[in-house]
TrEMBL record:
Residues 8-131 form the Saccharopine dehydrogenase NADP binding domain. This is Saccharopine dehydrogenase protein. InterPro entries: DUF4166, NAD(P)-bd_dom_sf, Sacchrp_dh_NADP-bd. Pfam families: DUF4166, Sacchrp_dh_NADP. Residues 399-559 form the DUF4166 domain.
Amino acid sequence: MSDAALRILIIGGYGTFGARLAQLLCDDERFCLLIAGRSLAKAVAFVTSLGGKAGKEPVEFDRNGDVYKQLSALRPAVTVDASGPFQTMGDSFRVPRACISLGIDYADLADSREFVRKIAALDAEARAARVFVLSGLSSFPALSFAALDRLAQDFSRIDHVSSGIAPSPHADVGPNVVQAIASYAGKPVPILRNGRSATGHGLIDWHRVTVAPPGCIPLKSRCFRLVDAPDLDLLPQRFEGLCSVFTGAATTPQILQRLLAATAQLVRIKLLSSLLAIAPLMHRASKLLATGEHRGGMFVHVSGADRGGKPLEASWHLVAEGDDGPFIPVAGLEALIRKLANGNRPADGARSADGEFPLQAFERCFKRFAIQSGTRQVGPADVDLPLYRRLLGSAWERLPRAIAATHDTSEGGHKLSGRASVERGTGLLASIIAAAVGFPKAQDDVAVSVCFTTKGRTELWTRDFGGAGFGSVQLEGNGRDAHLLAEDFGPFRILMAVVPDGAKLRFIVRGWRFFGIPLPLVLAPRGDTYEEEREGRFHFHVEVGGPLTGLIVSYAGWLEKDGV
């Protein structure tokens, strides 16, 4: 660490988000990180565990104490408030006011609608002191607006905007986050609906969305319930003529979300004044009921008119694997601090952080983690695209040429021929299923052909192995199955994520149905199924089996257009 290191005070520095910010910055010797919180012991323990070249100091800091005196003693160049909950602060700006008085720059992770809206009241003071005060440099509104700005480039008019976050059920969500949600659960939330001011209710109004970055395994379809985020105020200010706005959060597992919604109804009908009193219980319940995939995500969806005045929908999706999700809200703070270290200061003044950084600034951070994001569009020209182009969206461009050519059925279909080998399972149940579907018998080096026929928005695949044939119908899933490939074998429907993986295109089973009835995923047929390009030729590998059947069938080979 150099003597001129940038001193960064992180309030809540050992908490869920403050700790992630410190981890992002600790390898840079240009920084001195002041890890602050009410417990000096916890700050010391965290600093001891934190490696890197940056300077690190554990400090005791009580935001409810004499903030001016504490900041005067620490003298940071910039203060980051990563603690919260900002929803319970109202218009009490004790920390940013003290920072302005001392000439200290300030930024926070506030997701409180009121706090972020009213921060502009400090603008004149901040300008006079020549400091910046940025509020909401978090998922809402900084990242949501960065994604929205990218989507808006293709629109002449935006009518509807919805966005939401879906934390992993195993994410380390701190008590302050739960307390923030409890503060408005069941209470009236002013929203824009059908072009008019209306009233929603926190954690009660909902939208169902499937978060699915192109070429990524989608999150399971979730209900996003209304949260009182800053975007509800900021979006109507940004887009004149906007008709509706929605911001939501999806809690998993679903049973926990339903419990929270039911409890919020008690506030709505005034049997409870608020859920703040049971916020600790809500936090414990979220820990006890933490089941399901360790994955989280976020989306922003926009609809309106394109540059030619035709209807257009576009969406941005993000999925984070494992413990990487909590890095998302602090990516903007990292971008800010590195910008400062490079001598580039944001403009002086107090304001919301919406539009402060472009999406590229966040994406640079995401590349260091198992975080994937991308955009999707649905316009008049997209309706008639081939099935796999619609499913993959922008990820289509990542496909090897041979795979893309196989699935380019824009001319109504085509036929490919080649050679294959087939292996069959020997179990009784496996043999019965294979015979019922029409899977080929075990054989080596058999002639194979596949005819792809497009009918509307579906594809009929007719396979022939040495004169023995079977077929299936492929189509795009909808509703809860949105962004999945659905393949029908008689009354059975197999739902798969289609994921580019280098030279391969993988098919990952995400669900199945029998006459439309969902069946347990643990019993679903699955196996190592993929397509790949080898030496310019299309190859396939299909494996079908299950826990109750063992191997049913496996076949692999190559295909090419007739006459090639």
